[in-house]
Hints:
homodimer; 193 residues; alpha+beta; four-stranded antiparallel β-sheet; 9 helices; DNA-binding
Amino acid sequence: MYDKLFNYIEQYAGLPLTETDRQIIQEVFVPMKLRKKQYFLQEGEVCKYMAFIVKGATRQYTVDDKGAEHMVQLAIENWWISDRESFTMLTPTIYNIDAWEDCELLTTTKADATRLAHIPAAVQALREMDINHAIAMQKRVSSAIAMTAEQRYAQLVESNPTFLQRFPQHMIASYLGMTKETLSRIRMKASGK
Amino acid sequence: MYDKLFNYIEQYAGLPLTETDRQIIQEVFVPMKLRKKQYFLQEGEVCKYMAFIVKGATRQYTVDDKGAEHMVQLAIENWWISDRESFTMLTPTIYNIDAWEDCELLTTTKADATRLAHIPAAVQALREMDINHAIAMQKRVSSAIAMTAEQRYAQLVESNPTFLQRFPQHMIASYLGMTKETLSRIRMKASGK
DNA sequence: CGCGGGTTTGATGATGCTCAAGCCCGGTGG
DNA sequence: CCACCGGGCTTGAGCATCATCAAACCCGCG
């Protein structure tokens, strides 16, 4: 259960974890299961948990006034979920996060997470996590403002082909900032050639 | 010169800096001046510096195959610039960063920055910086995929009115993911009402 | 067998882009 | 002091891309 998290931390930090470190991490992170469609976070709440995905897939999205969902993030094993803004500032979130596949998570709270400050590898890994998240978001911004729908899809095929296996097309479409119809047509054209 | 940076750190960390801390920070961060239009980073280089803007304004952008520029970030006093990806992974960057107004910066390198690890307030502030950056980017993603050009402009007026003063309209337009003509028409319509 | 979620297909139209011209204004040099 | 120039902004006409709406299809599952 915790092995994936240990691996993640050791890999990102480039440092091994001691037995005591592992002990502490097991106390700080609490397992949680989520059934498909179950919410991890709902608009209006304060995001109390930050979680590491051991198994499963989740989506983070906003809902507009017409009831349409807009995917901000799709996440699978070894990714982190939470709304950093709500989590750190304790403000109500504007996002929803729910499970698309049944999930096993390791969750922690802001208070518990402070205990990690004494584990250099964990501090380092969390820092990397934030940076990676920022980098990923920056790439999405730059593709959203600079590329056509077709190019955005091509980029996803290139960089995250797994998503295509794990999530239905209409979610992918929303994630790419287009409608399911447009995505469907793009895929037709791409495979036709 | 360094005061703005000290303030920034103390404010974000919620901790005071000791005299020694200040001493170290002054050694770690090197002043640099940039004239309008001068590059801080060019596509293809590795990003060697991370910088705090004491005074001035910069823009970060990509250039597509048709030669069009796409603004990824606009930054002014109290903001940080660098390509986190290139800076941390030492890979060549795909971005350009240059000065739109004459700038005074405080720069540091990856190696020098490690010295900050001994200053809790600095560690904390840098962490906040990353988180804030990620949050800001996430908001841009969510508005880019979920909102119309008009709504995106309205949101900017709401959240970053200063930008409208400091940057020419065609840069704002690019930052918002639309053409200068579209932005011009939106502003006409908005002021007409 | 029929139902529901997901995907495809088609027709229509709005949004926003492209290209082209003209305007405004501050700066420079004759 | 004026003429000219260039950068930025506006305006307009036509067009491409993509969204919308609606219908049909596909397929796994109860």
